[in-house]
Write a structure and sequence with these properties.
Helix content: under 10%
Radius of gyration: 13 Å
Oligomer: single chain
Structural class: mainly beta
Number of strands: 11
Low-confidence stretches: none
Shape: globular
Number of helices: 0
Length: 127
Amino acid sequence: QLQASGGGSVQAGGSLRLSCAVSGFSFDDYAIGWIRQAPGKEREGVSCISISDDYIYYRDSVKNRFTISIDNAKNTVYLQMDNLKPEDTAVYHCAAVDRGKHWYFSLSSGVYGMDYWGKGTLVTVSS
């Protein structure tokens, strides 16, 4: 029900756009976003959006570089990633949680409590 795509290998300073095709539930009822996991590290919430709550979250390290958006007609969530850095290297997963728990994306423990979890796409940034 969550299918991520768009990962790849880029040099530092480059850009990628991740896509997450959503099926089986409504954007109105869930906060949808991206969680990444680098090798040997814990998951961390990157960004999420909750349309019904007019809420958008970015972790500090990606603010002003990443932009999350939704195309309702295509049932797709996007993550535009600009000025990529080597520390952005990770597998990026699309995930969703009940809109009442949208803050889960910002919690180190919350990212393990998603209601929906998609297979990830690998982003590799070389210096």
